[in-house]
Amino acid sequence: MGTVDKKNALRAGAVAAGTTLMMLLMSSPALALTPDDGDDPGPGLSVAETLGLYVVAPLALFAVIAGLVMVLDKSKKQS
Asked: Where are the transmembrane segments (predicted)?
């Protein structure tokens, strides 16, 4: 494989940092405070609902998929 010298690594880091900084400066989070026409936000989620939706549900889905893969695996076991 090729080697990466310090100069190219610094250049790549500077480009990545500059691009990220410009994206942050160009975005305007203040515009998110003014609602658009047709916005009708619902009630907020409780802590339990948020944890269930964003932590428990993905972990359960992962466990179900992994379990199905292991159970339905048709390859021969190496013994």
From this structure: 51-72
- pLDDT single digits (tens) 37-55: 777 888 999 999 999 999 9
pTM comes to 0.49
Q: Are 53 and 45 in contact (CB under 8 A)?
A: yes
Owner of token pair 């932590």? 55
Distance from the Cα of residue 34 to its chain's centroid: 26
Domain that holds residue 9: 3-28+45-77
Whole-angstrom distance between the N-terminal and C-terminal Cα of the chain? 37
Give the Cα separation of 59 and 47 in Å (integer): 17
- DSSP codes of every residue in 10-54: HHHHHHHHHHHHHHHHH--GGGGGSPPTT----PPPPHHHHHIII
In a domain, 56, yes or no: yes
